[in-house]
Amino acid sequence: MYLKDYIDKYKDENLTKETFFGPDAALLALFSLCDLNNIIPPNKAIKFKDAMIKQNEIHKTKKLGLLLPLSITHALEDASISKRYRSIKIHDSYTYINEDEITQTTIFQMDLKDDTTIVVFGGTDDTIVGWKEDYDLIYGEVVPCLKHSLDYVNTRLRSDRKYIFVGHSKGGMEALYAGLLYEKYQHNVLEIISLDGPGFVDSILETLNKSPYKHKARLIVPDGSVVGRIFKQPVDYTIVYSNEYGLLQHNPLSWKILGHEFGVVPTFREGTEKLSKTINETAATFSVEELKEFEKDFFDTLSSGGSKCLLDTPFHFFSIQKAFVSLSLKQKKLFLKFMSYIIDSRLVSKDIMFPSIRIKYNKDKQD
Prior knowledge:
By secondary structure, this protein is an alpha/beta fold. 41% of the residues lie in helices and 15% in strands. A hairpin with a 4-residue loop joins strand 2 and strand 3 (103-111).
């Protein structure tokens, strides 16, 4: 059974803190990929069902991003019409994107039928600035999204609610950071769940390891995890089986479920540490100045032609191609190496990244 089956199997069961499990955390974390700024009204609450209706009205294609499969939208739609999820009240949405600060932050709250609120920390969305912030993690600094996550829980949580912090990918990292350092109503925090969130560099990890709340946290990662094994973690892994390979395992829809929880396996798959190890070693190979130089060249190239999101990039291919040609030989090699990781891991196909090839192929086929 997988997440789509889980949604169907438990669709008529009420969702409370007693019936909230890992798969529920994964599903609600994925909702953060929607267009929250335009579907959640300011200073008001909206039901999950109504939020998904608005999302689909605004975005007819239903595609959440270039690297995000359509199956995520379908799972959210199925959940939004089920008894288990449809009446969840979503409120206190905070979305902050700032290209100057290099930050993309999304946090919101989801009230269950009892006194429990799920605080969702959004992962990296389709914005280029969000991916740029992910890259900044390798400098060893507290990136802005971590500061925003802690500020949010310090100012927006209440004393009369019970809380569960959840997040997928970068959101999982934020959930751990905020959850382990939050103190104001910490006695009301029931659990902290990171779903394949990346770890932390030593300077941040040292602070998190001193937290007295680590017993509340769990880190769920697939058995071939890449993202969850980048840098070091303040809590132990709970390893679950995925029916995918490489970076595609990052999608929780591929994680096996037994009963109410993800199916745990004892160890990682043999040989699957290669990509995360390469990323960790590459970060240690270059100086901060070199890393920042590549960051500027890489993301300036992706943004050529005016792209703000990855989904825009295929439409600006020729501008990106022109910017790429102007890079130094060293930067070209690094750029192509990074893109080969993306394509080899089947996160995106070659004909999506290189539409000129697809257009020519289709034209030749017609002729």
